[in-house]
């Protein structure tokens, strides 16, 4: 923005302006400058060629010929599209706002909307034209006028916009009413103080029976007053019934809004939830009441589920996803699986669609393996998939693994480990680790497989295997000294810091099982300590301390040597840790108290790490949302509320005149 | 919803920007460039990115990035689907969607974008509606316009926008009334080393080209609709008739459109039309390897396999290839390491074979994994699932249209692991 500011202020003195034009502009101007512009051009000898060119455009715009004006406007729009500044043409352009030529007029509109905010005073000149157009007998002209008028972000015209919106909301043409619903959002973002008045218009438009208006007004509702659930009650059934005939984009918005609505108005169709309220209720009376009333789904709740189901067949992937999330959040558990096939179908679509759908399936498959297990093979990875697609498929396959299919999955994983995409191979190793902890039958098989990978040529594969083996050994600490010994042997050849650190930690943690090897590893580390990475140094200090406590006879001198090196290390973390460890393990006069417990502190049995999915608990966000995709709460995200324990009054949705359902 | 759109070419130049609300500086794209840098391959750039004040949702199509700037919560698929619809529209209008074409037609592009979104919310995305408002450019029309001063922009509201069938424009007239349907099936498969099918399924699509006068109401029925396991429809298809009678009943849009896509139930065994015998090996010493691929017909239902093509993404270490193809041509792209063997028609009497040696970078370790083979092929006049259209009926109009159905089977994502 600051660049723009400088540019505007220096317009008359030109220095910066020249820089913006560049060589390209000069060439263009050379071709385009006409004899008529030379007279004015001479006076501006100092100015850039670019300026001359715009002079040229200015003359064209001010000429009497329609075709010249149109040609000029096309070039101006070309400038806008390229992101070049054409704001100084504003006075010349704005004169053409009332042109009869529809294309010229539309291009002027494009220009106005782009620059009105910067040239507010001049923009006001055009307002009366729009006010006149709002009364035009042609609905298309009325709608376009409202679209532009409401897009001009000039605070002074707020009252005019308000009036125009109110009138348009009562227009006979549904297309104009749709435009007014869009204008509501524009006015709201320009001046939030108008909220109350705008809500009145929204309330009115919500009653509209046209399928054209429904999506747009719900969008306005979501932006202006998403908390005014009470406005929806009377329109709920109508919206449900219109849904199939609304255009695709409106369907997405309505479905998302109705999902939120349903969670505030109906009781939970999920059994465990009912039981919970049952046990939670402390008063005897309430308990009896609920016991007497088994769960019956509100017919309105059923209506929503029934009317959204056909939309699973939509060609629009966003519609399918929105129905899927509605079923996930609202349907009884046994009905949710009807969305599976449609979601799997979306995996045939563009890569970006796959990405979002796979993310959502990843979240779903954690809670409901059964939903996607029959389609397991649809998640097999192809070597041509993009890396983020591969990783998500792997995630889902891991979620789907169970005793019955694990051998198939592991066979598939074997192919992936060999992948040329090393980041993906590493992710596969982690996935194997997760399968191994989740399914005890295959833990040993997996562990042996990972040990084999330790002799792999690729460093990242080895490193990842070491890290995963470390985690697995922690969960199963008994009888794995063979593997630890094997890793100690490989230690010299492993260079990835994380892997070296992991092996050192394992040595220290299980030093009593490998009493001969551990001190030898420490001896080697003493030699290389100064050239190691920080995490490796920290683990070396750790190993030294643990060995000192268990086997001080052999390692006392080594430990002291390493502690001395650490004391003068460049990294303050390492210096701190060294000092702390020394105080803890080496007995002296001052520190009697903790020293006694050193062994219990350092060699305490540690809980095994839990290897879990990155998508666990992702469903705290409504599925299909941006927040779910990024796993952060995005601006403007509306929380789904928990089901109410007792359903609010159902009669609020009754409408006096019950109309026959048209479809 | 959608705040701004930037079009960026693959070298990272922003060549078009459009804002639907207040203007957002193009410096917001820097976050995207950072991610692009990190991803190396343009296909690996995450479609959804977060920046301190905005969210960026991007699609990559035809070597172009369509980057949209979002400020508040919105279903990401909504934006992605819309961006693809924009790209589809450009393709529909200009025949292709490339930087040059968009730059050449920048005014039409801008007019389209203006109509497609209002305040960032989709307004008109149906091709039939858009074409009534903004006519696609043709040479003849631009000549006429210059002479008469008329324009490409309509001044009345397209009829479709108001009716219950927004996809069809009113007043359609043809002298030759015709309706063509292409049933296109793609086989997605993964075969393992030994040729066993790891995974296979059939995805089908019915592309229609309907040029019929007036308001025809069509019914398309199948001999064996039970084959269709999962379907998705163009909005024109009446869902209830499908549910109850398994027929497609619809008032079609004018011109080309996708009527339905379907999936053939995975319970059915999928016929695999070709087998591949291959042997790729890299030697420990000597920096070289061997490659030997033979392709033969398997289940082709008596039809000819055409357009056969094998694509192999070689490991980075493969410097060059020295191969002989018994049929067709092969190329090896040194920069991308992609080997393409264009075989052509498959002759069952004389099976095509590609063999020879691969030379490797000196000192590079032997690749862990052999590259997989991607197969392309085409079989005319066959829907591999066995799906058959039985009849097409027209109601609501009196004339007799010309009707035609064509079948074709292709390889989709057809991969052989080695």
TrEMBL record, chain A:
Chief place of localization: membrane
Extent of the signal sequence: none
Compartments it resides in: Endomembrane system
CC per GO annotation: endomembrane system; membrane coat
Membrane-protein topology: Peripheral membrane protein
Keyword Hydrolase in annotation: no
Domain Clathrin/coatomer adaptor adaptin-like N-terminal: 54-586
Keywords for the protein's UniProt record, in alphabetical order: Membrane, Protein transport, Transport
Protein transport among keywords: yes
Stated family: Belongs to the adaptor complexes large subunit family.
UniProt-recorded name of the protein: AP complex subunit beta
Organism from which the protein derives: Lates calcarifer (Barramundi)
Gene that encodes the chain: AP3B1
TrEMBL record, chain B:
Location in the cell: Golgi apparatus; Cytoplasmic vesicle membrane
Family note: Belongs to the adaptor complexes medium subunit family.
Protein name: AP-3 complex subunit mu-1
Name of the encoding gene: AP3M1
Gene Ontology cellular-component terms listed: clathrin adaptor complex; cytoplasmic vesicle membrane; Golgi apparatus
Gene3D superfamilies attached to this UniProt entry: 3.30.450.60, Mu homology domain, subdomain B (2.60.40.1170)
Ranges for domain MHD: 176-417
Membrane-spanning residues: none
Topology versus the membrane: Peripheral membrane protein
Role summary: Part of the AP-3 complex, an adaptor-related complex which is not clathrin-associated. The complex is associated with the Golgi region as well as more peripheral structures. It facilitates the budding of vesicles from the Golgi membrane and may be directly involved in trafficking to lysosomes.
Signal peptide extent: none
Any Gene Ontology biological process: intracellular protein transport
The entry's keywords: Cytoplasmic vesicle, Golgi apparatus, Membrane, Protein transport, Transport
Lineage: Eukaryota, Metazoa, Chordata, Craniata, Vertebrata
């Amino acid at each position: 923005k600051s660049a723009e500011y400088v540019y505007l202020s220096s317009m008359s003195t030109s220095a910066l302006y020249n820089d913006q034009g560049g060589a390209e502009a000069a060439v263009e101007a050379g071709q385009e400058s006409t004899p008529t512009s030379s007279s004015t051009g001479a006076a501006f000898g100092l100015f850039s060629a670019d300026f001359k060119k715009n002079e040229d455009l200015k003359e064209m715009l001010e000429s009497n010929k329609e075709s010249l004006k149109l040609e000029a406007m096309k070039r101006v729009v070309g400038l806008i599209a390229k992101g070049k500044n054409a704001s100084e043409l504003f006075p010349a352009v704005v004169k053409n706002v009332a042109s009869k030529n529809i294309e010229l007029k539309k291009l002027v509109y494009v220009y106005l909307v782009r620059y009105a905010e910067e040239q507010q005073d001049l923009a006001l000149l055009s307002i009366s034209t729009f006010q006149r157009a709002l009364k035009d007998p042609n609905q298309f002209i009325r709608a376009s006028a409202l679209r532009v008028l409401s897009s001009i972000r000039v605070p002074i015209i707020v009252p005019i916009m308000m009036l125009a919106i109110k009138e348009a909301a009562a227009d006979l043409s549904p297309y104009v009413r749709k435009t007014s619903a869009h204008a509501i959002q524009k006015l709201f973002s320009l001046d939030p103080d108008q909220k109350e008045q705008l809500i009145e218009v929204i309330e009115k438009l919500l009653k509209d029976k046209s399928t054209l208006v429904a999506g747009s007004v719900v969008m306005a509702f979501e932006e202006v007053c998403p908390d005014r659930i009470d406005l929806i009650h009377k329109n709920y059934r109508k919206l449900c019934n219109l849904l199939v005939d609304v255009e695709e984009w409106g369907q997405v918005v309505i479905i998302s809004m109705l999902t939120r609505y349903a969670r505030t108005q109906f009781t939970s169709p999920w059994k465990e939830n009912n039981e919970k309220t049952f046990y939670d209720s402390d008063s005897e009376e309430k308990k009896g009441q609920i016991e007497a009333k088994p769960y019956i789904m509100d017919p309105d709740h059923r209506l929503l589920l029934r009317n959204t189901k056909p939309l699973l067949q939509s060609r629009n992937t966003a519609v399918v996803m929105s129905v899927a999330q509605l079923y996930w959040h609202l349907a009884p558990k046994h009905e949710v699986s009807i969305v599976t096939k449609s979601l799997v179908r979306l995996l045939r679509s563009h890569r970006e669609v796959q990405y979002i759908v796979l993310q959502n399936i990843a979240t779903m498959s954690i809670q409901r393996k059964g939903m996607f297990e029959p389609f397991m093979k649809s998640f097999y990875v192809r070597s041509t998939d993009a890396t983020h697609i591969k990783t998500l498929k792997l995630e889902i396959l891991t979620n789907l693994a169970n005793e019955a299919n694990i051998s198939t999955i592991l066979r598939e994983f074997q192919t992936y480990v060999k992948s040329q995409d090393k980041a993906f191979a590493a992710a596969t190793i982690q996935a194997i680790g997760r399968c191994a902890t989740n399914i005890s039958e295959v833990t040993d098989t997996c562990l042996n497989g990972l040990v084999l990978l330790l002799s792999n040529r690729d460093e990242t594969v080895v490193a990842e295997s070491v890290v995963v083996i470390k985690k697995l050994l922690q969960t199963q600490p008994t009888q794995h000294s063979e593997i630890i010994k094997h890793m100690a042997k490989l230690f010299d050849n492993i260079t990835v810091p994380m892997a070296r650190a992991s092996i050192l930690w394992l040595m220290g943690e299980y030093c009593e099982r490998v009493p001969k090897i551990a001190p030898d590893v420490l001896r080697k580390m003493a030699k290389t300590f100064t050239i190691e990475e920080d995490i490796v140094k920290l683990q070396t200090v750790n190993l030294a301390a643990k060995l000192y406590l268990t086997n001080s006879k052999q390692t006392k001198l080594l430990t002291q040597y390493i502690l001395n090196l650490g004391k003068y290390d460049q990294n303050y973390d390492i210096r701190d840790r060294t000092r702390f460890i020394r105080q803890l393990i080496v007995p002296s006069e001052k520190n009697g108290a903790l020293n006694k417990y050193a062994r219990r502190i350092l060699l305490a049995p540690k809980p095994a790490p839990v290897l879990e999915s990155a998508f666990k608990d992702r469903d705290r966000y409504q599925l299909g949302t941006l927040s779910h995709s990024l796993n952060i709460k995005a601006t403007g995200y509306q929380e789904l509320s928990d089901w109410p324990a007792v359903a609010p009054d159902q009669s609020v949705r009754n409408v006096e005149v019950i109309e026959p359902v048209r479809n | 919803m959608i705040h701004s759109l930037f079009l960026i070419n693959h070298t990272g130049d922003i060549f078009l920007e459009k804002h639907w609300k207040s203007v957002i500086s193009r410096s917001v794209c820097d976050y995207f460039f950072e991610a692009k840098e990190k991803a190396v391959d343009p296909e690996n750039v995450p479609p959804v990115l977060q920046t301190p004040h905005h969210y960026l949702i991007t699609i990559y199509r035809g070597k172009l990035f369509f980057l949209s700037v979002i400020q508040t919560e919105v279903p990401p698929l909504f934006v992605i689907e819309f961006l693809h619809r924009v790209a589809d529209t450009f393709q529909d209008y200009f025949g292709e969607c490339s930087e040059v074409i968009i730059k050449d037609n920048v005014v039409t592009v801008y007019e389209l974008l203006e109509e497609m979104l209002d305040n960032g919310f989709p307004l008109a995305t149906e091709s039939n509606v858009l074409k009534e408002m903004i006519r696609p450019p043709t040479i003849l029309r631009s000549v006429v316009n210059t002479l008469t001063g008329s324009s490409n922009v309509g001044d009345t509201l397209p009829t479709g926008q108001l009716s219950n069938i927004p996809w069809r424009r009113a007043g359609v007239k043809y002298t030759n009334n015709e309706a063509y349907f292409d049933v296109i099936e793609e086989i997605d498969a993964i075969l393992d080393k030994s040729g066993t099918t790891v995974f296979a399924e059939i995805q089908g699509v019915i592309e229609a080209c309907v040029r019929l006068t007036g308001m025809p109401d069509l019914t398309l029925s199948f001999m064996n609709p039970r084959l269709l396991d999962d379907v998705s429809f163009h909005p024109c298809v009446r869902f209830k008739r499908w549910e109850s009678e398994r027929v497609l009943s619809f008032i079609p849009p004018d011109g080309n459109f996708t009527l339905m896509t379907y999936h053939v139930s995975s319970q059915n065994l999928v016929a695999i039309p070709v087998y591949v015998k291959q042997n790729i090996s890299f030697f420990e010493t000597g920096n070289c390897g061997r490659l030997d691929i033979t392709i033969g017909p398997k289940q082709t239902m008596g039809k000819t396999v055409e357009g056969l093509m094998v694509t192999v993404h070689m490991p980075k270490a493969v410097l060059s290839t020295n191969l002989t193809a018994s049929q067709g041509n092969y190329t090896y792209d040194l920069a991308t390491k992609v080997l393409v063997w264009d075989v052509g028609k498959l002759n069952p009497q004389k099976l095509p074979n590609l063999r020879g040696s691969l030379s490797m970078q000196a000192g590079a370790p032997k690749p862990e994994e052999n590259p997989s083979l991607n197969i392309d092929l085409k079989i005319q006049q066959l829907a591999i699932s066995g799906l058959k259209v039985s009849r097409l009926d027209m109601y609501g109009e009196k004339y007799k249209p010309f009707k035609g159905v064509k079948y074709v089977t292709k390889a989709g994502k057809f991969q052989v692991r080695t």
